[in-house]
Design goal:
single chain, 111 residues, mainly alpha, globular
Length: 111
């Protein structure tokens, strides 16, 4: 039975390699993942969150922008993303998202 462990490990590794590297999750993506979204909500939220993450990554990688310019552009993107996500979520889910953000912000200040 011992010979199965390397085979299973190899199969898991092969599956991970085929799937490719997973992009880093943004904070809003992690928070939305914690909400109980319906399949329809997930389908609507995914492209919004993916677009948000791609735009933010591009801004952070842009060496021609000052840190202040980057913060301003990211804030604009996040405001737009929030409006799109709010339209997808129920009122209760939106409250949960805001509460989770507030808690994470508070935890960040403690560090």
């Amino acid at each position: 039975m011992r010979f199965w462990k390397p085979i299973l490990l190899g199969a898991s590794l092969a599956t991970a390699l085929i799937a490719g590297p997973q992009p880093a999750r943004t904070q809003i993506q992690r928070i939305v993942d914690e909400l109980s979204l319906s399949d329809d909500q997930k389908a609507k939220a995914k492209p919004v969150l993916d677009d948000d993450a791609a735009k933010v990554r591009a801004i952070r990688a842009d060496t021609s922008l000052s840190d202040e310019d980057k913060r301003a552009k990211i804030k604009t993107i996040r405001t737009d993303t929030d409006a799109k996500i709010k339209a997808i979520l129920t009122d209760e889910q939106w409250k949960q998202l805001e509460q989770a953000r507030a808690e994470r912000k508070k935890q960040g200040k403690k560090k």
